[in-house]
TrEMBL record:
Coiled coil: none
Catalytic reaction(s) noted: L-threonyl-[protein] + ATP = O-phospho-L-threonyl-[protein] + ADP + H(+); L-seryl-[protein] + ATP = O-phospho-L-seryl-[protein] + ADP + H(+)
Lineage, top ranks: Eukaryota, Sar, Alveolata, Ciliophora, Postciliodesmatophora
Any one GO MF annotation of this record: protein serine/threonine kinase activity
Residues annotated as signal peptide: none
Gene Ontology terms describing biological process: intracellular signal transduction
Protein name: non-specific serine/threonine protein kinase
EC numbers for this chain: 2.7.11.1
Domain AGC-kinase C-terminal positions: 281-355
Amino acids binding ATP: K51
Domain Protein kinase, residue spans: 22-280
InterPro entries listed in its UniProt record: AGC-kinase_C, Kinase-like_dom_sf, Prot_kinase_dom, Protein_kinase_ATP_BS, Ser/Thr_kinase_AS, Ser_Thr_kinase_AGC
Provenance organism: Stentor coeruleus
Database matches in Gene3D superfamilies: Phosphorylase Kinase, domain 1 (3.30.200.20), Transferase(Phosphotransferase) domain 1 (1.10.510.10)
Family membership noted in the UniProt record: Belongs to the protein kinase superfamily.
Length: 366
C-alpha cells in the first residue's frame, strides 16, 4: 500500500497506511475526541467507519491511556457481535481508527424516533448484546459503557457492540476505574468499589427498562444525583406497573438485572445464567450466532445517522479551549508524540497469534 511520511526527525515514517488511502464521503457522527466519517478504502473499494480523534483533545482530557487501551483490545477482540477494527494509524495531529461500518445506525437513533420497541424486538436486540458480552467476558474484558449509543445495527437488524474506550481487562483491584455513563453505570462503579462482569448486565437492565417505560430507572442532572437515587431506592417493576404488551418474565428479567448489590444480580456468574432466564429461554442461540434468523426490526436502507450534515462544517466549541491550545503546542514535541507510539494496526499485516499472546486471560468475576 506504500508508505506515509511525516515531516519530523524522530516521527515514525514507515506507516503502511494513512489518511490519503481513504476517500472521505461524509460525517456520520461525533465522539468525545473528534468526528466519525464514512470512508472508502481506495485500494479495495471497501466501505468503513473512521474515527478521527484529535490528539490535542485526548491530551487535554487526559485520555491517552484510554485510546491506546482501546486499540490494544481491538487488536485481538474479533467477533461478529462487536464492531471490529480494520486499521489504526496516526499523523501529528490525529489518531485514526478504521472500523466496520454498521449502516443501521445506533440504537439510540432508532429509540428516539420509534419511541417504543415491542417486547419481541427488544428481546432480539438484547440477545445480540448478550452474545457480544459473552465473547468479551470469556476473554477477560469488561465493556463498562453499555448504552444505546454504543449498540449499532448492521443491515440485517443484528446489534453489535462498539466503543471500547473505557473497556478494561478485568483485574481484581479495579475500584479506581470509575468511568462510565451516569444512568447506565452500576452502583458498585459509582461508589468506587471493585467490580466485574455484573456491571455490564446492570446496564442491560437499564436499557430494557428504558425501552419498556420510555425513561431510565434512575434520573438526575449529575452523577451524584443518580448515585443518591440508587442508594435511596431499589427500583423494582411491580406486576401492576408492567406496560401493555410486555410479559411478567420481561419485568422479572429487568428486576434481577437492576439489583443494586452485584451478588444479587443476574449475570454475576456469567452469561449462561442470563441466557437461561425464562425471558430468554426461547431464543435460538445457535441461529442467533450464525445470524440466520430474520430480525424483527430491520433499519431502513437509508443512512441511519444523526450527523450526516452537521458533522462536515460544524466547528467544535470547547469548554476548555485553553487546555486544547496548550496540548496543541505540546504536540510539537517528539516526546509528546511518543505517548502515541505503537498505535499502527493493519489487519492485512497483523499476526493474530502474536497479538493473542499479549492479552490477559483472567476471567472476570463479581
Amino acid at each position: 500500500m506504500g508508505s506515509c511520511n511525516f515531516k519530523s526527525d524522530n516521527f515514525d515514517t514507515t506507516q503502511s497506511i494513512c489518511k490519503s488511502h481513504f476517500q472521505f464521503q461524509y460525517g456520520i457522527g461525533k465522539g468525545g475526541f473528534g468526528k466519525v466519517w464514512k470512508v472508502e478504502f481506495k485500494k479495495t473499494k471497501d466501505i468503513f467507519a473512521m474515527k478521527e480523534m484529535s490528539k490535542a483533545r485526548i491530551l487535554a482530557k487526559k485520555s491517552v491511556n484510554s485510546v491506546i487501551n482501546e486499540r490494544k483490545l481491538l487488536s485481538y477482540l474479533k467477533h461478529p457481535f462487536i464492531v471490529n477494527m480494520q486499521y489504526a494509524f496516526q499523523d501529528r495531529e490525529n489518531l485514526y481508527l478504521v472500523m466496520d461500518l454498521m449502516p443501521g445506525g445506533d440504537f439510540r437513533y432508532h429509540l428516539s424516533r420509534t419511541k417504543r420497541f415491542s417486547e419481541v424486538q427488544t428481546k432480539f436486540i438484547i440477545a445480540c448484546v448478550v452474545i457480544g458480552l459473552e465473547f468479551l467476558h470469556k476473554n477477560g474484558v469488561i465493556h463498562r459503557d453499555i448504552k444505546p449509543e454504543n449498540l449499532v445495527f448492521d443491515n440485517k437488524g443484528y446489534l453489535t457492540i462498539t466503543d471500547f474506550g473505557i473497556a478494561r481487562v478485568w483485574v481484581e483491584e479495579n475500584a479506581k476505574d470509575t468511568s462510565g455513563t451516569p444512568g447506565y453505570m452500576a452502583p458498585e462503579v459509582m461508589c468506587r468499589q471493585n467490580h466485574g462482569v455484573a456491571v455490564d448486565y446492570f446496564a442491560i437492565g437499564v436499557i430494557v427498562y428504558e425501552v419498556m417505560f420510555g425513561i431510565r430507572p434512575y434520573l438526575g442532572r449529575s452523577r451524584k444525583d443518580i448515585r443518591d437515587q440508587i442508594l435511596a431506592k431499589q427500583v423494582q417493576i411491580k406486576k401492576d406497573e408492567i406496560p401493555s404488551g410486555w410479559s411478567n418474565e420481561a419485568a422479572d428479567f429487568v428486576n434481577r438485572l437492576l439489583q443494586r448489590k452485584p451478588v444479587s444480580r443476574l449475570g454475576l456468574n456469567g452469561p449462561e445464567e442470563v441466557k437461561q432466564h425464562p425471558w430468554l429461554q426461547d431464543v435460538d442461540w445457535k441461529a442467533m450466532q450464525q445470524k440466520t434468523l430474520v430480525a424483527p426490526f430491520i433499519p431502513s436502507d437509508e443512512d441511519n445517522f444523526d450527523d450526516r450534515v452537521q458533522c462536515d462544517n460544524d466547528p467544535w466549541k470547547d469548554a476548555d479551549s485553553d487546555a486544547i491550545k496548550q496540548s496543541t503546542i505540546l504536540l510539537q514535541n517528539n516526546a509528546t508524540q511518543e505517548l502515541f507510539s505503537g498505535y499502527l494496526y493493519d489487519i492485512s499485516q497483523s499476526n493474530s497469534s502474536t497479538e493473542t499472546t499479549n492479552k490477559n486471560k483472567s476471567k472476570p468475576t463479581n
